[in-house]
Write a structure and sequence with these properties.
Blueprint: H1 13-21, H2 25-35, H3 48-64, H4 82-92, H5 97-117, H6 120-131, E1 137-140, E2 156-160, E3 165-169, E4 177-180, E5 189-198, E6 201-211, E7 223-227, E8 240-244, E9 247-250, E10 260-261, E11 267-268, H7 274-283, H8 286-313, H9 332-364, H10 370-401, H11 413-420, H12 430-443, H13 458-462, H14 476-484, H15 498-525, H16 531-536, H17 539-563, H18 568-588, H19 590-595, H20 601-618, H21 622-627, H22 633-636, H23 639-661
Parallel strand pairs: 1-5, 2-5
Antiparallel strand pairs: 2-3, 3-9, 4-8, 5-6, 7-8, 10-11
Helix pairs in contact: 2-4, 3-5, 4-5, 4-8, 4-9, 5-6, 5-8, 8-9, 8-10, 8-23, 9-10, 9-17, 9-18, 9-20, 10-11, 10-12, 10-17, 12-17, 14-15, 15-17, 15-18, 17-18, 18-20
Length: 685
Amino acid sequence: MTSTQQHLTPVDPARLTEVLDGRWAHVRRDARDQLGEQKYAPVYGETNAEARERITGLLKDLAATGRTRLGFPKAYGGEDDAGASVTSIEMLAFGDLSLMVKAGVQWGLFGGAVQLLGTERHHAAHLRKIIDADLLGCFAMTETGHGSDVQQLRTTCTYDPDTQTFDLHTPHESARKDYIGNAAKDGRMAVVFAQLITQGKRHGVHAWLVPIRDEAGNPVPGVTIGDDGPKAGLNGVDNGRLSFDHVSVPRDMLLDRYGQVAEDGTYTSSIENETRRFFTMLGTLVRGRVSVGGSAGSATKLALQIAIRYGEKRRQFAAPGEDREIVVNDYLVHQRKLLPALATSYALHFAQEELTSTMHDVQGAETVDEAAQRELESRAAGLKAANTWHATRTIQMCREACGGQGYLAENRLPALKADTDVFTTFEGDNTVLLQLVAKGLLTGYQDSFGSLDSWGKAQFVADLVKETVLERTAARGLIARLVDAVPGRDEEVSLLDRGWQLKMFEDREKHTLEGAANRLRKGAANKSNRLFDVFNDVQDHVLRTATTHIDRVVLEAFVAAVDRTADPAARALLAKLCDLYALTTIEADRGWFLEHGRLTPARSKAVTSTVNALLKELRPFMTTLVDGFAIPDAWVQARIVTEEGPRQEVMAAEDARVRAAAAPGDSAVDTPDATAVDLEMAPAQ
């Protein structure tokens, strides 16, 4: 399968939208219809108080649309559709990201925890009110002293059989709950995570439903509420701090799906191992992580649409023999910035769609498949990291691509940059998440979980894979056929051969994984090494293993999407874009491919020339590709998208008038000839 013979013809963006919208196309269409109005877009220049008040109002409006019911049980008015719920949040991210985050806290984290960690009595008492936004709540897990290592939370909740209540306590400032959405202003209850203690024994982290405000909005006795204050972005989200001074919590407020405490204080659980129980609990909350990755993708698409539409109208520098200056998108250096990022956004979108589908199926199964659950958690962690890092890089690049205009609040990009910056560290720090991905790869999704020390245990080392068996994505058969069809000598294969591209990604992942496993084995064999040092000495290699794995997963998802595209013109265009994603990824890591003999120097140079040729082929389709995202104009909120074209036309008309009125030989327009190819540049103004 190559794209060398595929001639690109005009493509209806609607055909791209059909492919992008995927399994939950109806949810995406409904979002555009229901929410595609300006009130859901950001407002620039608000104070924090104004932004918070507006977003709280929109949250109530959102509840009235019925979209908040998608992921909840049918018994409480929901639709039992986890995939639709995540897709809806992803669509919401094209609007004001403060609303997306606040909605995610209310219905994804707070409501999701009650639904997935609680039991029938919790559902009956609270779910309808949560769905309708009549009960606003918080998800209080993170502490000032512990963000990533939540298994080590310091908040305690100790059971007293005499009163049949728990004593919830914050022992010191590092144990206060921090950065908690909905806490500073709106939340009335919180799902609080703490160490469960009963009969003098700790049973690990569990969750409780805890009132934090009374009906008048005042903190309840024993609860101290603080405001995190001004942030870099997301001004409409009321992040706050919670501390508990021996707050009494009734026994039945323990969310006890995975661990129960009897009246006499006896603890029982269907999962005996504390660490395994903890990760099972967290695994049920994977929707939040999936949602953040998808939302980052939406923000990135929006930034690319702004930059590309602006670049299609903006002109700068003159060319020999041309009356008008050159369109910015015609410059190779501009294409080098925008088109690879656009290709990556498409690739990540298709991988995200696969992830959402897997999440929906795994969580909707009648019986729990632990292996599938672990793989889902690993995939969600890796794609969340990939999506959010891509957002941070690409939104900044789009800001630069729009010059000074990109720095103005009215053109949306500064808000996108500020609002998404935290995505790389909330719902899991990206570096820690990559560690989770790598651990899953190296242990083969074993049932044993623990601290970093377990990386050095002899049992772990003995179980390391000697030969990597790649877990394929949804298109297992298709990918295998393409890879198996690649001839033996790489230098004789076209760089546009899809099987060769896939094989390069597979080889890199396999080699990197085996190398990391061997280094860990050697480190553990040296008995003088500290257990921590065994892992720490190869941590960079381990994280690279995760990155190469995710790259391969993303490419396979793109290949599968091309294969299922029905419209021939759209299919050919997506195939070219897939070529660009594959080859720019190889180009960016050419050092590894050269060092390990996967590329010769000549073939490495050919990768760059092929990329440049692809850019030239894709140049006429830049706006088509962003139009395929089908982002409602009301959500874009960037004046340069609508104003730059008319400005350029007015300037061109005036230049033409001056030229027509000028005497022969006069320099009619104050624009030097051929500035686009002049090596001398004027100083920046």
